[in-house]
Specification:
Blueprint lengths: L2 H28 L5 H25 L10 H37 L2 H10 L5 H28 L2 H23 L9
Length: 186
């Protein structure tokens, strides 16, 4: 691994640790503010972002975005494309996981679960356990939401890079058609 790669991975590791710590802190602080309206807002946001992310995945994975040249040039670019696709796919999984936990949370609200347990005449300590589970689930939903927000802020620059490469490739193709060498002034 080269020094540049090691530096890049070190930076990404620090970003991940900071994102996790900040998300844990914010989810703990903002848990008392969670309500139905906040959950509905999160569902709307992540549903829209998930659709947007599918479009980004289509752009990143488009074979036309590979640089022109030999198969070796394309092979080298494929490595970066796969890395970008994996990161974007993982963000989509975080969106979907957040939506899944919100759905599950809404499906198994404390009142609905308690009514089931009262039918079975189970211990009253279960109510306290369910309240703890509810609290942890709310914090986990918020944690995933903050992580997803943090990494979503990187999407515009990723989209910009993809489009910039496509424009550069098109310019390069037009230069080749006009028999203009890359070393000549633009």
């Amino acid at each position: 691994m080269s020094f540049a790669n090691a530096k890049k991975y070190w930076k990404k590791t620090v970003q991940l640790i900071v994102a996790i710590l900040v998300s844990l802190f914010l989810s703990y602080l903002s848990q008392p503010l969670i309500n139905e309206k906040a959950l509905d807002t999160l569902v709307n946001i992540y549903s829209i972002l998930a659709g947007f992310l599918v479009g980004i995945i289509a752009l990143i994975g488009d074979p036309l975005s590979l640089p022109s040249g030999s198969w070796r040039v394309a092979e080298k670019a494929r490595i970066n494309t796969r890395r970008n696709l994996k990161g974007t796919r993982n963000l989509l999984y975080i969106y979907l996981l957040t939506l899944f936990f919100i759905f599950s949370y809404k499906l198994f609200t404390i009142d609905g679960v308690l009514s089931i347990y009262t039918k079975f005449n189970l211990e009253t300590d279960i109510k306290n356990n369910l309240i703890d589970i509810k609290l942890l689930t709310e914090r986990f939903i918020l944690f995933l939401s903050y992580i997803a927000f943090f990494y979503s802020f990187m999407l515009p620059s990723k989209l910009f890079q993809v489009q910039e490469k496509r424009v550069d490739k098109e310019i390069e193709e037009r230069r080749k058609k006009a028999n203009i060498n890359n070393n000549q002034p633009k």
